[in-house]
Amino acid sequence: MVLNSDQFVEKLKSIVEENKKITHPLYQVIMKGEATPELLKNFVLHRYHIKSFWTRNISAIHSKTPDVEVRKELAENIYEEETGKLTGTMRHLELFFKIGEQFGLKWEDIENCDILPESQDVIDWNNKVCGPDHHLVEAVAALIVYMEGQPPVTWDGRTMNEAMKHFYSLNKEGVQYFTIHSSHDMEVEEDHAEAGYDILRKYAITEELQEKAIAALYKSVEVRMKHFSAILRVTGIQAEAEPVLG
Fold it and tell me: In 3D, which of 135, 134, 172, 129 has the Cα closest to residue 147?
């Protein structure tokens, strides 16, 4: 059965809500203030390489999008990620590296990193779903909806940037990264998610395309949850179980 556009978007939002980052033990350990410097170092090290593909993935979505107004919003997303000029900060990937730097991460670690199989699975999936063999709505659901549509990561009333200041004494640049990406205090991030929903409302208009978009979203949840568990594993922390997909 074909859902109307609002029903379909609400369905996707509910999937993201049921499988948001804080449902994974990695984020729970961090948000409880229980993360060691080694875990936080590895959190950045093994997330960095996935994030380094982000603007290229969004560029691929941009090139597939017929709607010029949405393309403008995606172009703004890419510009901000690569320069930080809309928020008066710096390239977001540089801000992310500076978080790990405070816990002993060096640039040589990034350059010489053996990418975990689970991290490579995320990279491969993101590249594949944005490629020529997948429809625009699949790419949007898999990347923009799941990543930009994440609700703020919170625990006991604290957002990620507040937890980083409270538990880990993160400096200004590190807090800036999480303020932009994890608090939703900045309107520019909300706009990114809405661009994705606009695409889906306009183009996911058949049962087949809606089913493909939902399947792509679940695939993104699956590979990222395994990636989060791998970060715990390399620092000697075993997740009790993989979160069950909603």
Answer: 129
Task: Identify residue 187 by its one-letter amino acid code.
Answer: E
Q: What is the DSSP string of 165-219?
A: HHHH---HHHHHHHHHHHS--SHHHHHHHHHHHHHHHHH--SHHHHHHHHHHHHH
- Mean pLDDT, residues 130-148: 96
Q: What is the pTM of this model?
A: 0.92
- Using DSSP's 3-state secondary structure scheme, residue 3 falls into coil
Q: Strand (E) positions, the chain?
A: 154-155, 158-159
pLDDT the model gives residue 246: 47
Is the pLDDT assigned to residue 241 strictly greater than 60? no
Q: ∠ at Cα 3 (216, 196), nearest 5°?
A: 50
Residue located via tokens 């000029």: 85
Q: Are the C-beta atoms of 142 and 125 separated by less than 8 Å?
A: yes
